[in-house]
Specification:
Number of helices: 0
Structural class: mainly beta
Distance between the termini: 22 Å
Length: 93
């Protein structure tokens, strides 16, 4: 689980579950400037599930979990919710 502080002082939580096998590599990070999650995958195609959340002082926490996503080797997935405070309907498979 990755926890990052956004420019507005709230927090982003980011989790990744993947079935990646040997010979590949994963990179998961939070891009503060773009307020987005970035996942890069090297190796053969893999299935993954992304979990993101928001916590701040002015609203209740919010989170969502994606459906299973298939990512090919060398691909990059960027996720930028329209409103981190309302994530319930963000990730649809």
């Amino acid at each position: 689980m990755l926890v990052a502080r956004a420019a507005d002082g709230s927090y982003r939580t980011i989790g990744l579950e993947t079935t990646s096998s040997g010979g590949g590599g994963e990179q998961l990070c939070y891009d503060v400037a773009a307020d987005s999650v970035v996942y890069r995958h090297d190796g053969g195609a893999t299935a993954c599930v992304l979990r993101i959340g928001w916590t701040g002082s002015d609203a209740l926490p919010s989170s969502t979990t994606s459906a299973s996503l298939v990512i090919a080797g060398g691909e990059e997935l960027r996720v930028r919710p329209g409103d981190w405070r309302r994530l319930a309907n963000t990730c649809r498979g």
